[in-house]
Amino acid sequence: MKTKVCTKCKTEKSLKLFPDDRRPRGNRDGTLSQCKACRVAYSAAWKRANPAKEREQRARNYAKNRDKIRAICARWYQENREWHCMNAQINHVLRGNR
Ligand SMILES: [Zn+2]
Q: 25: which residues sit within 8 A by CB, 6+ positions away?
């Protein structure tokens, strides 16, 4: 099992616990330097510190994925005839595209 030391928490973890590095010239092992737990903590802290930017980013994401979200919602509505779970569907799409 390949492992790597997170630059943030300094803990040695399996490579599977590091997020994929999608940057064209990113880390050679294909994962980011910080583990998923640290990234999650970091982004939660960032959202708390930058609520306006977070909203803006979410709106941008939504605009980028609008057609996909609409398609999913339309299909979901066809199947369920109710909107109450729509937000969950949207969040699912937005998270999947990060
Ligand atoms: Zn870490």
A: none
